[in-house]
Amino acid sequence: MGCAQVVQVPAAPTAKQAAALTACLDDHRQLYNAALEHRRTAYAKAGVSVRYGDQSAELKHIRVDDPGGQGRWSFSSQQATLRRLDKAFAAFFRRVKAGRTPGFPRFKGRGWFDTVEWPKDGDGCRWDSQPGHPSATFVRLQGIGHVRVHQHRPVKGWVKTIAVKREGSRWYVVLSCDHVPTETLTATGAVAGIDLGVAALVTTSGGEHVANPRHLVASADRLAAAQRALARKKRGSERRRKAVSRVAALHAKVRRQRLDSAHKAALALVRAYDLIAHEDLRITNMTRSASGIVEAPGRNVAAKSGLNRGILDAGWGVFLTILAHKAESAGRELIAVNPAGTSRTCSRCGHCAKENRVSQAEFRCQGCGHAAHADVNAAINILRAGLALRRAAGAA
Fold this sequence. Notes:
The protein is an alpha+beta fold. The chain folds into two domains: 3-180, no CATH class; 191-395, Nucleotidyltransferase, domain 5 (2-Layer Sandwich), CATH 3.30.420. The protein has helices spanning 15-46, 52-65, 75-98, 215-218, 220-231, 238-272, 283-286, 301-314, 316-330, 374-395; strands at 3-11, 115-118, 125-127, 137-141, 145-149, 158-167, 170-180, 191-196, 200-204, 209-211, 275-279, 333-337, 362-364, 371-373. The strands form four sheets. It has a five-stranded mixed β-sheet with strand order 10-9-8-11-12. Strands 1-7-6-2 form a four-stranded antiparallel β-sheet. Strand 4 (137-141) and strand 5 (145-149) form a beta hairpin. It starts with a strand and ends with a helix.
């Protein structure tokens, strides 16, 4: 029994292959936009809802009519692009039903469609397509050829899907693997609750703090300079294209740094503890804008905006996703608990009040006088709630 895993490896296409990959992305983007226009027009003029099955059935005729364009690429990859649009509509209808801001699916510009997926290894694509090669690994993609990849470590498990992703001027192959063998770690007998924050990325119930690297803040000056340079460039010019690439490259570097820090922090926790309890955070809700509307403007908008930037820069969502994958692979137990009241409740006497949280770092119980670091106090409450959930699940 194994676990699922997503692996991203850098690709090194030749100049000809890079041009073919760019054409592949552009044709899939045009297919996405055409399918979106088809749905919009059919509903606006005839009140007809077009589904994925209808559009997938038309693919055969589209490919026959355009053999040098859409006909070059894998049929299954084009179906995956149509499914991507179908998922966007499904998410739109879910938001409408929930009473949230709907966000109707949009047409994709050149800079907003940078991934193509092949849903099954062997159908229009093949991972490790030249296994006999003595020193390199290749992935074969229909219409593009055998693309070399920089495989730093063996890919384990069964490759389920293959995707190609463009980040600025760089190309990556993203593999979704099933049945990855688990590497169970030796039991330590230790348990911990963790509190995520902005000042410190992670604070454990034992009082340890993992620093928040603040990668976006560290790159803020260079990003600001690159964005000012971009604003001065004429639209459609070669200089603007280079300026866009520069901004994208800086953001990509921040993403890679954040990912690396998350991997290291998660690995240290998984090695140290058999059970880790964390808050079940709804990060999208937490970082929602406080600006409001003209009739009902928000309050403390600047402070909330700064907090949102801090939360997103800390990368809580990325960290929790990586922690879950590593815990599963290592045979560790991960428990998500309701975060309500954990930062205001005294870990000693259980008194819960807003006034207990004196400042961002200081906790002082108004009931019993217990004083502690606010994040450590919250982490202890999170651990206690996680252990309670574990006992309840065992008794059920």
